Amino acid sequence: MTASIIFPPALVMVFGALLVTLLRGRALKAAAVAVPLVGLLLLWLAPTGSFGHFSFIGLDLVVTRIDPLSRIFGYVFYLVALLGILFSFHHSERSHYAVALLYAGAAQGVVFAGDLFTLFLFWETLTIAATFLIVARGTPQARAAAVRYLLVHVAGGLCLLTGIIVHYSATGSLAFSAMDLAAPGALLIFLGFGLNCAWPLLHTWLVDAYPEASVASTVFLSAFTTKSAVYVLARAFAGTEQLIWIGTAMAAFPVFYALLENDLRRVLSYSLISQVGYMVVAIGIGTDRAINGAVCHAYAHILYKSLLFMAMGAVLYRTGKSKASDLGGLYRSMPWTAVCCLIGSAAISAFPLFSGFVTKSMIMDEVAHDHLQWVWLVLTAASAGTFFYAGIKVPYRAFFGRDAGLRPQEAPPHMLLAMAATAFMCVFLGVYPQFLYGIMPYPETYDLYTAPHVLSKLQLLGFTGLGFLLLRRWGLYPFEKPSVNLDVDWFYRRGARLAYGLTEWLFNGLNAWGERNFANRLPTLLAKFFMEPGGHFQLGGARLIARLNGAEAIQAEVENSILQRSRLGTYPVGVGVLLAVLFLSLMSLLFFVG
Amino acid sequence: MSRKTLLQWVFYLLLAILLGLELIFHPHPYFGWDGWFGFNAALGLVAGILLVLVARFLLRPLVKRDEEYYDR
After folding, report:
1. Cβ contacts (< 8 Å) between B59 and chain A: which residues?
2. Neighboring chain B residues of A260 at a CB cutoff of 8 Å
3. In chain A, what residues touch B65 (CB-CB under 8 Å)?
């Protein structure tokens, strides 16, 4: 195959997005499904290498770089785009499909970008498309969350752009390859990537916006932004030790929020951050086996996470509710959705024979090999927490537990089909991990289904389940209540209000003060003075002299006579002569000195 | 015995079997302490309970606000 027919994967999707804007009805849906399928086929046929070299305003660009690392991300991005489109079939508006395909295409663009300029272009496209996906739900909450999403990501994008410019001016190269954190601009690039990766303290856009988007949009959102960030980190910063600590914090802290949170789609959003934390740790370790683990975990995670979002989306679609306190007992009316949700839960909890078991074990084994015992302990405890909130809480509060009396219809066929296909993948990857081993970036062998390993995982999960039963018996669980749980977005949501108030006080205060003094008082004073400038001048002098002599004020009759004389202009001739002489002597003095 | 309690006893029995199996399939420890008998079981039980208690009694009092908090 020659290079000329390597079509950039991003452009397949972008052209697809343009195409679907021309169609409607069945043709629209058929085309929307066909686009990722065609892309998948083209990528499967495409050889490894760099294509699309060209020069633009003096920059050497490489639009398509296909190597094992980018290829596996490309595959899973096409796959989840396909499943997400299928799940969206209740949408009849073209904008949904166009924006979803554009968003998925931007992620492909990031993954296959061979240079930082192309990367940045698609990075920003990702942000803009995601904003539209969020805003499309049309609720005031979604609109507000979308604006916050946009502002945060534009700030992150600027950070990245600054880093790229510094990097380019220092090295003269735009090639996107491994970087040293100490290199000029690298830290800014690192932080820009980290924002999209939802690092701790930079994460709140995710849990703010994803639960506010429509049910189909969230499936897309959950897949692309964070995982394309995982890809760029794996590409540029593999083996950067800081990532181990960032990732550990990232895996741990969302567990508490996920346990506390009442909105089940927000629970899944916190859980998404926690799962990406495992990948970040593996990238920080940076060995071939660890990178394999990170990439395979991303692959499995994209699928089980979108499955869980689909299941909760189907519940929201049918009942209009997504809060644990409003749901319960839905297995009676939505049994197939419940089964799919349980498969997703088993996969995220890393049950043997499900995808998460394979991929999480790849990471955990590497952590153990590196003798990072504290990291291992935190990640394992977080796994127990993951089983608690995603394995037990989500299905238990939605489909089992207290019956909320809701009797909706089962999810529509297209949703069931999308969920079934995704669930199949979750089981398939768990039962037949050789599929993943065949497409992962570095050829390594893994032997994960050993009896002791399976046993230790089952013990961990089983006794976490026992903990759940005990807590329920003691009346300590469930405890979720309708609430807002403050997170660091408080600083910009409440902080913005504070800054607004402060600015209002400072500048409006300044304005009012200026108006009072310069527009009202000063002209009045000046007008009064210039009505009788000579008289007021003399009065000022007389008052000054009087005060120097110790008097409180000058006598009223003196004041009156000064003003009257000034008004009438009746000065003695001698005063005029005196002034003229003074003036002349001043002039001559100046003349001689000059 | 109701079906629910029966299921619970089956679950407890399974847990006991899982623990018993560790006598046959001993895991290869990486750090030493992870090879102690029943380590994973204990970790799961303690971590699960502890995380919930921390979320409920430490985090919730700190961060919980009413649902209209940001709309006011």
Report:
1. 256-257, 260, 485
2. 55-56, 59-60, 63-64
3. 483-486
CB contact under 8 A, B44 and A453: no
Measured CA to CA, the distance from residue A257 to residue A348 in angstroms comes to 17
Q: Is the entire prediction scored with pTM above 0.90? A: no
A356 in the same domain as A225? no
pLDDT of residue A5: 55
**A264: CB partners within 8 A, 6+ apart:** A312, A315, A322, A323, A324, A327, A394, A397, A398
Domain of A314, in residue numbers: 241-481
Q: Which residue of B has its CA nearest to A379?
A: B47
> Is there a single domain that holds both residue A409 and residue A306?
yes
Same domain, A378 and A448: yes
Q: Do residue A483 and residue B45 have CB atoms under 8 angstroms apart? A: no
Shared domain check, A453 and A501: no
Closest Cβ opposite residue A462 in set B18, B49, B60: B18
Q: How far is CA A327 from the centre of its chain?
A: 28
Q: Do residues A86 and A418 lie in contact, with contact meaning Cβ atoms separated by under 8 Å?
A: yes
Three-state secondary-structure class, residue A511: helix
Other C-beta atoms closer than 10 Å to the C-beta of A413 total 9
How many CB atoms sit inside 10 A of residue A549's CB?
A: 8
A252 and A194, same structural domain?
Answer: no
**C-alpha separations of A282 from A70, A251, B28 in Å:** 17, 12, 21
How close, in Å, is residue B15 to chain A by CA atoms? 6
Task: Measure the CA–CA gap between A106 and A562, rounded to whole angstroms.
Answer: 84
The pLDDT, as a whole number, for residue A495 is 87
Nearest neighbour of B45 by CB, restricted to A260, A467, A477: A467
pLDDT > 90: what percent of chain B? Answer: 60
Q: Is the dihedral of CA A555, A561, A567, A569 positive or negative?
A: negative
> How many structural domains comprise chain A?
4
Based on the fold, state whether residues A213 and A263 are members of the same structural domain: no
From chain A, the residues in CB contact with B9 under 8 A are none
What is d(CA A235, CA A295) in angstroms, rounded to the nearest whole number?
A: 11
- pLDDT one-digit tens code per residue, A500-527: 999 999 999 999 999 999 999 999 999 9
- The answer to whether the CB atoms of B40 and A460 lie below 8 A apart is yes
Cβ separation B64–A381 shorter than 8 A? no
**Residue numbers in A near B31 (CB within 8 A):** 368, 371, 373, 376
List chain A residues with pLDDT less than 50.
Answer: 1-4
Same domain for A292 and A423? yes
**Which residue in A has a C-alpha nearest to residue B30's C-alpha?**
A368
First to last CA, chain B: 52
pLDDT digits 0-9 by tens, A53-104: 888 888 888 889 999 999 999 999 999 999 999 999 999 999 999 999 999 9
Which of A139, A204, A255, A259 has the highest number of chain B CBs within 10 A, making it the mutation to test binding with B?
A: A259
Phi, psi (deg, nearest 5) at residue A197: -85, -5
User: What count of Cα atoms within 13 Å lies in the side-chain half-sphere of residue A27?
Assistant: 6
**Nearest Cα to Cα of residue A270 among A205, A175, A366:** A205
Same domain assignment for residues A13 and A79: yes
Find, among A146, A99, A106, the residue nearest to A123 by Cα: A106
